[in-house]
Amino acid sequence: MAATQRQSRELKQKCTEKLKTAKDPVERLRLMCLQRGANGIKGLGRTFRIMDDDGNRSLDVNEFMKGVRDYGVMMEKDEIKEAFGMLDKDGSGTIDFDEFLKALRPPMSAARKSLISQAFRKLDKTGDGTITVEDLKGVYNVKKHKKYLNGEWTEDQCLREFLDSFDTPNEKDGVVTKEEFENYYAGVSASIDSDAYFDLMMRSAWKL
After folding, report:
1. pLDDT by residue (tens digit) across 22-57?
2. What is the pTM assigned to this prediction?
3. How far apart are CA 168 and CA 45, in angstroms?
4. pLDDT tens string 152-208
């Protein structure tokens, strides 16, 4: 169950409001990503991945600054450098970008993380650590999709559209990894204050 337009709107409003008072540069970067919706953090991750020419999955301060700028996040140079310094916990001058994405995710309770993992496991029928259209068959019902009902789309097309909602905008490849799924739901989670409501939403969406 992808984030509804209402949730996306609420998330953007919340982030805009919090940005007015947020001082911590990492928190500001997180809020600026989430202003783009639940996929915001994932989009920044994809930008870094494309830049990682040597495939070492780490970034120095210049790559980090370029990635943030390329993604269109409007932060001052000093602020980006300060955020990098806070994320470079061992002072090595580089940050591992998987660790960076985890640090950027909005904090979530263990209960929420567990529900997200349960949903992913249920969808990943083949158990290969990714979700594809084939995995979704029999788990996600397209029979009520209006384009399926009027004969405009096949089941596969409906499933692909659904899968794309978890993928990174402009980089949709029809495969959703656990990291992408978690980053997506971390964004959704940030728009929902109540643990009970998040629990209800996940259980009813995925029949957990």
Report:
1. 999 999 999 999 888 878 887 888 888 887 777 788
2. 0.70
3. 9
4. 999 899 888 888 888 766 667 888 888 888 888 888 888 787 889 899 988 988 888
Residue type, 76: E
Q: What angle do CA 195, 201, 207 make, to 5 degrees?
A: 125
DSSP alpha helix (H) spans, 56-141: 61-70, 77-87, 97-104, 110-123, 133-136
What is the Cα–Cα distance from 22 to 15, expressed in whole angstroms? 10
Q: Which class for 55: exposed (0-12), middle (13-18), buried (19 or more C-beta within 10 A)? A: exposed
Assess contact for 156 and 134: CB atoms under 8 A.
no
- CA–CA–CA angle 56, 59, 128 (5° rounding): 50
